[in-house]
Structures are given as C-alpha cells and as structure tokens.
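so im writing up the methods section and need the 3'-5' exonuclease DinG record in one place, dumping it here so i stop losing it
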Amino acid sequence: MMIKEKYVVVDLETTGTQFKSGDQIIQFAAVVIEGQQITDKYNFLINPQKELSSKIAELTGLTNAQLEQQPEFAHFAHQIQAVLDGAVFVAHNVNFDLPFLQSELHAAGINYVPQAAIDTVELAQILLPEAPSFKLADLTSYLNIQHLNPHQADSDALVTAQLFLYLQQQLLHLPQPTLQLLKHFTHSLIRQTGNFVELMIEQACKTPSKLPDYLINIQGLVFKKPQTVVNSTPMNSKYPVTTAKKSTIFNQTITCRPQQMKMMNFIQRKVSQQTPLALVDAPTGMGKTLGYLFPLSYYLDQGKQVIIATSTKLLQQQLIQESLPLLERLRQRQYSATIINSAHNYLDLDNFYQVLRHNFGHRQTDLVKMRIIVWLTQTQTGELSELNLTNYQSDFFKLIVSNGHRQSGLFYEYDFWRRRWQNALQSDILITNHAYLLDNLDTKLWDNKRVLLIDEANNILQQSLKPQAHLIFRTLKDALKKISDILYQQRVTIRNFFNQTRFNSWTHDDLLALDADFNTAKQRLKFLEADLLSNYLKKQIPLSKRKSEMVLTLSSEQLHHRTVKSLNKLAQDLQAILARLTKLLQLYEVTKTNSLLTIEQIIYQLKIQYQVLWQQEHQLEQVLAGLSVWQPDTGLMVMMQDYSNWDSISLATQMFNQNTIVTKLQEKFRTTIFIGAALQYHHSFRNFCQQLGIKEKLPKKDYLILKRDYDLNQQLQVYLPRDVANPRNNPEFDNYLAHSIAQLLTNTTCKALIMFNSLATLQTAYQYLISTKISDQREILAQGITGSNQRIKKRFYLNPTAILLAANSFGEGLNLSAGELKLLVITRLPFEAPSNPLVQAKNNYWRQQGFNPFQVESLPTAVRRLKQEVGRLIRSPSDQGIIVILDDRIASTKYGERMYHELELPPYNNQLAISEIALQINMLLRTNF
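--- predicted struct ---
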C-alpha cells in the first residue's frame, strides 16, 4: 500500500444485514479518491427482485416503485469490479460492506479480493477520541460535514470520503513521538487499517518536526503542558441593585426577568452580610445559575473565592461551558474555574505509561490505548469521562486511574490529579459535586474559601440513601485468595527473576511472611463472619425472614466491643499485606528492564488484585472512621444476601441525619446557600430542614421563594390516560409501559424524554422500541445503554427528533434542548424501591424518632423528583409541551392527588385512551397548541 494509492470509498444500502438469508444490495455508491482529491463518484440503484420491508423503505427513503425500474445487480457487477480494481477499499464499518459486496459479486461470477481494506470507524475512534458517537451521521454533525441524505448510499459514501480525508490530515499532524507510540498497537486494527496507519506514520516521520510549544514529551508519551490558573485581578466594583442598572450591564444579551433579579439581590445580600445559612427555592427555567453567578462575581472581584457544589458531572460541565462564558460576557472580565471530582475520575500518567507495554491480549484494549495516546495531546484535565466511553469498569481502567495518593513517579510533576488539586486551590470558582464535598469536608481544599453555594440542593438529601462506606466480604476474600494463589503458584518465577538482579531482593522468606499475613487475615474474616451471623443476624432476625436478603441496622449500644476490635485488627492485617505487596511492585519497577513476558503477566495480575484489595481496605477504614466518631444518627448495616452463604455478608455505614454535616459546613464556611427547584414541600422549607437535620427555625429574611414568571396553562397540556395501568403487584406493567410508549411515539417526530424509576424497566422499553419501526425513523437514546451521560446529552441536543429514555436523575438542572423538547412521559411516580436496604434502614430510623417515614421522607422525596422531571419541559415563557403520566396512582390515591397539587400544573385530562392521546399529541404539535 502506498500513500498515493487510489482509494474507493464504498457504501451500500441493502434489504437486510444477512446475505445468506436472501438479503441483497439495493444501492451501491462509491467515491474515488486519488492524490488526496475526490476524482469520481458512482451511484447505482439496483432491483433486488423482492419487496422492500417498510423498515428499510423508511430508513433509506427508497421505494419499491423506484427499484422496479432498475436492473438487477448482475447488470452492474463488472462495472463495479472496474471501479474497485486496483484500489484500496474504504468503508464506514468495513466488515459489513466488504463481505456483503464480495458475496454479491461472487454470486455474479466475480471473485473480488481488494488489495487492502480500511475502516473509518476505527480511524475515527482513535483520531477523534472525544467524539460523542461514531455513527456516520453523528460524526458528520460533530465535524460540521454537510450530510444531505443520511442512509442513502451516495450521500453516505460522499461524507465517508470527506471524513477519510479529514482523518488522514489529523493523523499526519499528530506529534511524531505520538505516532511512533501508536505504531506499537496497529496490529490490532481490523483488515489493513493498521497497515494504512503505519504508512501514514512513515510518511509523517520522513521530515523531522518540532514539538509544538503547548506539548511536552516524556519517554515518548506526549501530553499538554499544565496551564497555570490565572485569577481575576481584584477590582473595586459596585453591585447593581436596581433592575435599570442591571439592564445597562446586560445590554440586551439577556432579558431582565423579575424573579431572576430578585434572586440576584438576595444572593448578594446573604454573601455581603455573611449569613451562615440561607435557602432559595427557584423553579426550573427561571435562570437560577446566572441568578447566583452574577452576584457572586462581585464577591470574586474582591479577590475572594467561592465553591459551587452541584449534583452531577453534567451540571459541572454546563457551568464551565455555558454559564461561566455568559457571565464573562456580561461582566466583560474573566474568572478562573476548576472542576474537581474524586481522584479515580482521572488518568494516572505513570500507571498508564507502565501498562502501555503490557499485552492484554484484547484487541479492544489496544484500541482504547491508541485512543488515550491521541487524547493526551488534546486534554487539559485528564478526566477520563471526556472519552465518552460506556464502561470504565474493566481491569485495564482499574490499573490506569488515579488513587489520589501518588507521591513520586516519572510523571509526578505533571500528574493530572495533582494539577487539578493545585488549580483548585488557586481558582476563583471551585466546582465540585455533592458527594465529593461531603466525603472530604476535612480536606484543606476548602480552606480560605468562605462562601459555599449548593446547587440542586434537594439532591443532597439523597446522600442519606447512599452507603458512606461498603465493605464486601466476598470481594475482599476473592482478592486475598487470588493474590495468595498468584504468589504461591508463581513463586519460582518471581524468585528467579529477582535473584537474577543485583538486588536479590525477593526471597522465600518474603513469600512466607506474606503467606502468614494472608492466613491471619483469612482467619480474622472467618471469625468476623461467624460473629456477625451468630451474635447479630441470627439473634435479631427471625428464621422466617431469612429467606430473602437480610438487613440489620445496629446502633452504637448494640455493637459489641469485640466486633469493633476485630474490624480494627482486620484493617491492620490488610495494611500489612498491602505494604509487602507495595514493596514487591516497587522492586519490580526498579528492576523490570528486559523482564520476560511471563513476569510481566504475573505483575499485571497482581496489580489488578492489589487495586481491589486497596479499595476494600479503604472501605474498611471508612467504616471504622464512622465507628470511632459514632453519632446516634449514623448506623452500621449488616447485610446478608444469602443465608446459606457466609461470604454474602457485607457491612455499610449510613448517615440518617445530616445535622453533623450542616454543622461542619457552618464551621468551614461563613455563608452556605442551598438552592434548588424543589426545596419546598407544602409551601414550606420545614420538611427540607427536618431531613437535613436543621432544628433551628430560619428567619424569614434568610430564605427566598421564587415563582414562575410565565403561565403554564397557556403552555402545557397534561394527560392521564383513562386506560392507564396500576403498577402495584402488576407483573405485566413493564410490558404495558413499553407498548404505551410506542403508541405515543408512533407517527410523531418531536423530541421526547421518557423518565423511568428503574433501569431494568428502561431496558425493557428500549429493547421493545428498537424492534419497532420507530427506531428506523428516529434515534433512540437510553441511559446506561447507548453511551455515557455526556455522550447521550450531546446526541440528544444535536438531534431534533431524538427520543431519550432516562432515569429520574439524568436531567437534573439540564436545559437539554433549548426549548426543542416537546413531549415528556412519566412512566411511574418516582418513589424509592421499598426493598432497597438503605431505604428500609432509613425508614426504621424515622420510626424510632416517632415519625411516619412515608410522610416525612418517601412522599416529599417523590414530590421533589417529580418537580425535577416536570421541570425538564417548560423552561422559558416561549416553551410549549405535553406531559403524559402513565401511573394511575396520581388520581386513584390521596397521596397522588397531593403530589399533583404540589406540582402546580394545569388540570390533567383523563378522558382519553392512550391511542387517542397519541392523535391529540400529533394535532397539538402541528398547530403549535
């Protein structure tokens, strides 16, 4: 293969995906590239001698009438052969187009074997590492390549050719050390894609080139130089209190909205008065983010810093990418901002460099390595979520993520987590998430930052429904066994390797010492399991209730000193094992030059299990930390999934009352402001404060209740089908939902959001929808199935007819589509599953306090979630939309009626069946209400 080869980019439309089952080509298109230029195009419509299915007709836009007038494939076979002759075959998903075309040509008596075949999907995955999707239509949108007729072969072939040329240029302009590193993994690419990459690398490296100033090269790994945070220069600025003065600053960039102006003034007062605690209930769509950023910017002008904690990574990105640039335009000055999350979200450069040379034996892992190598030349943060992968849980990722404790290494100076931490200390605005803030309140990161604003604050209440720590006995025992087995079975290989070095540093005595530690830890675990089962679970849970998962919540008085002592001893055992393993792994790093593949494989396996063991030991430390400062409102849960299996025991700590956290917040920050769209319940903050553990009544001047500045009666239609099913004790409810959703979406093209309580139910609906003709007409996105949350959001935003299936947490605070969202379907009232052990434990806590858990927590929490879901639809005075509720409890129960009253929506229409509502939706959308 040569760089000046003739390339033919091919796309096919077919009657189906299986040639052996009788499927045939109905359209062949090819674009010829020679000398980096498109020189010719071919497009043949082909009669398949069979009727097109409605699915294929809708997908391609081709009709039976069009194809009936065309020749059969044999008529074009020799012409197609001539086009392809002597050329490199290129396709987007080459392993579909090439075999299918070869089969058709073979049936016509032509044996076609291209000299090489290249896949643009894999090239794009490597060279566009942050792309939200690698579907052709998504890539063309991402790169602003005009794509007139998606799923028509001539249009697809043309844009694939343009994509191919673009990717070639991307490859040629990569730094030469990066190219040389990529070369190690090209053998894993499909067909001759790897050969093509090698050819391009050879071409690019013919002439030495200087590394750009913004990049740095260490041992062949090229990445961006750290950016120094530049704080805004302190200045004397006076906050504009009046609307007139704000209007002058806004200068028609945004409209002055009365409720937003009211919020701005409130935030400014609370910060300047150093009010310890303040609450703001701000309805969705009223511009609350700018409502707090604008007044905070005047505080930043004094050389101060603020912390903003929100609920999701998506909201953090929205603050950086959308809200902050708007603020800077209004204020005509720049502010520095840093996002910081848990360390495991970031790439550890040293760890990644070490695993680069290891052969995992998985083609996909090599592809991810290549993708990260290219990504490092682009990322400033090192946050792995930028890659938009669906799964970060593989052994490979366990090895390359940061644990936040690196103290040295080849790349230590440039460690992403370390850099993030340093930037966070300096930034004007520090953005984090609720969980990281609450789990790390004692860190120095928050020092000297006097103002904390907690956005989406209703979600902070959910921290009590998450385990603060979770020690899983089965996971711990498996890791100990695997490490012990590796060291024993490979003892000769390990000892011989170290004996060959000048250190002679790993001996039989070291193995014996570790073995003794393993035995001690195993015995301790066995004792703990017996103790927890015999002295707690058996004594307090009757035999009749041991058939399902057992959950026991223990108070400090119920926990015996012997148990706490055993847990502390186990922690010491695990720390001793980790210390010896750390020594072994460090010795290997010093002596690994020219090591054999066998020892590399052993060390790789040890590293994986080391990470698992370290994580479980860390969880145990957190359990003990909770026990050492035991609070009456914190519980230790003993859980056992299977009474016949001791290894199914696990321990978790749960914080029932967050008053301790509120106290810490007030000690740490002069002003803490809670903001959310659903803090109120029954037109009061009382329930929010009760759940948060705030016992003192807030002065009226320290809370603010904002109203919508538009009339929902003119903008919203709400339907409750008269034939809606009751979800309780209904095993067919999931299937009912799937069919109902399909009915509502058939023959509509509007952007739709379908909200679910359960990911399992979501998956059932997704599988059903993709089997219908709806999937031929529209893109169906599903949380946890079709990509990362960031990728799904981008694709949903770009596609005006997309359907998104999401859990209730997905859309919190997100303006998903700037008014384009027209249909919201709520599949079920968003109550927590009563079988959830954490919910059961929290309910028991409320009963012990003398409260009804349904009235205090379950119902208010469901109302807050429902408000969030409804808030996704109408976010401005110009928006219009339709809500369909598929849960009859909203009308058939008193608590359902109360929930709907809390939403302050127009009265719902419950006179129509689902099929009639579908017709009504179509009519409303056509007439714009």
